[in-house]
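2.7 Reproducibility. Because tokenized structures are sensitive to small changes in the input, we list the exact sequence used for YopA central domain-containing protein, including any N-terminal residues retained from the expression construct. No trimming or masking was applied before prediction.
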Amino acid sequence: MKVVNDAISSKYLDYNIDEDISIYEGKFCIYLDKKYKCSGKIFYKMTPPISINFKAKILYVENEDIELALDYDNAILEVYGYKPISITINTINDLNIEGYINDNYIKSKNSYVEYIDFHIVNLDKIPGKLIKHQDKLFAGRIQFDINDFTVTIDKRYDYRKELNEELKSKSGTIITHIGRIKRKDNRLFKTNNIIIFLDRISTALSFMCGRYVDICLAQGYQNENNVYRLWKESTVTPFKFVPTWTDTLSNYHNIEKYMSLMCKKLEDGFYGPAIKHVIDWYIESNGNVTLENNIISVQIALETLSYVVLVEQFKIITDEEFDINTTSKNIRMLLDVCKIPYGKEELVTLGNHIKTKFDDGVDLVTYFRNKIVHPSQKGYRVVLSVEDMWNTIQIGTRYIELILLAIIGYRGEYSNRLKDRWYGEVEVVPWN
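Resulting structure tokens (single pass, no recycling of outputs):
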């Protein structure tokens, strides 16, 4: 009989969409001009802009002067279980005080742990292997390796169609998944670099979803005792459906392979920062600001990738040659290196008046961008309708998706955004 593992759970799954999460309730001290002993709460505000706030009653004030250069924008909050916290005070009177933290996280001292559980905000309802919560069986686990560690990510047990639809209708925010990091050899490990480790996981998940997904809380355990705590202000896009290269993937092994490859590549001192910047532009290109902004984001991402691959990494051309070349020539060279085909067939969703005037998707993408940045009668070829603009952006965005997947060495399936597709309808990447 097949063994089905229990899902990782957490008390923080009890919070509803957009509900603030209580971090601490009780007594703490605030150091300003004097020492203020307070009773109140520190809480995580889940609605954007996400922040860690505090609100308290002042119990009494110790009158001795504090020998520190502190003010309302740079006070200190001291609470049991965490390192001293730099804060800004919004309001203060004889009875009450409230404000927010200045840094983007609060944490305890580093410690040796057996494993770390982390809480993911607004991840899509991705496929996975069977797990159980009490008497409920559901497909919700992915598992992948990063160097000496195994990472497990479990979907919350009630993340069904109803919750997904409610999140979309409210553009809401909620903890959707719980993850666990553990060494393969089960040895203890120290938490010193965990923020960087978690950031790579968040970046990889964000590229999967086409919007910002982040981690709000990590807790480290030894002998089942919570010995490490980290609350991190998340960069999260309000929940919405975004068409991406994963939106019809039904085989979770593809996601596991991708996560392992992307997290590993993000460690690279050369590629890591460049990929993060490109993912930012990719998410911008999926945004709802304007179509003009979206195509500019697409071309910035493609130009960045062209330079990184052609000049810096493989040294196919020099800096001078890169500058002399047209943008379209550099992008085509990049696509050739990555074994990504391009041509007239990419223009299938566009009208004949466009197909006859452009060589391929690269030609169309760069034309659209140049028409916005350098409006002129010179080089004018065609009027693009709103639908034409949207289809052009899809071509450029697909280039970004495939180039990034090629760079990390992914050889699995993907969703082709240039085609109408249903769940489970996928293609194998062209370089496989």
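The chain has a mean pLDDT of 94.
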